[in-house]
């Protein structure tokens, strides 16, 4: 019985490894945070991870923001229409290790309507804070 339990545990760990690796953020520098103000240029609500592109600064430099997985974002109420071109946002995230203009998105604030998106650990949250609060 002990041998079967050990084999089942080993098989479970072997299968969990690839799943965890998929969600690895190794391409992003988790020790750093970058905050940007910009305007939404595009929102790709695709599988496995949606991407938001924002234009930053007077030269409208494009930054690509990777978000949590599609299914968890759907569960908290994000849809393909949540982010529209022209919306002003303030974002914060872990920068790409290669220096590319890309972040893993941990926080997004949309001041016009108080929308806040936040990734805490492996869990995304979406809330709307009334203006003036």
Looking at the structure, the CATH topology is OB fold (Dihydrolipoamide Acetyltransferase, E2P)
How far apart are the first and last residues' alpha carbons, in Å? Answer: 60 Å
CATH level 1 name = Mainly Beta
Which regions contain 5 or more consecutive residues with pLDDT less than 50? 10-22
Strand ordering within the main sheet: 1-2-3-5-4
**What is the 3D form?**
globular
Q: What percentage of amino acids are in beta strands?
A: 35-45%
Oligomeric status of the shown chains? single chain
Share of helical residues: 10-25%
What labels would you give this structure?
133 residues; alpha+beta; OB fold (Dihydrolipoamide Acetyltransferase, E2P); five-stranded mixed barrel; 2 helices; 7 strands; globular
Could you explain the architecture of this structure?
The protein is α+β, with helices and mostly antiparallel strands. The chain has a single domain (28-128), classed as OB fold (Dihydrolipoamide Acetyltransferase, E2P). The chain is 20% helix and 39% strand. It has helices at residues 2-22, 70-75, and strands at 34-44, 51-56, 61-66, 88-95, 102-110, 115-120, 123-128. Strands 1-2-3-5-4 form a 5-stranded mixed barrel. The longest helix has 21 residues, at 2-22.
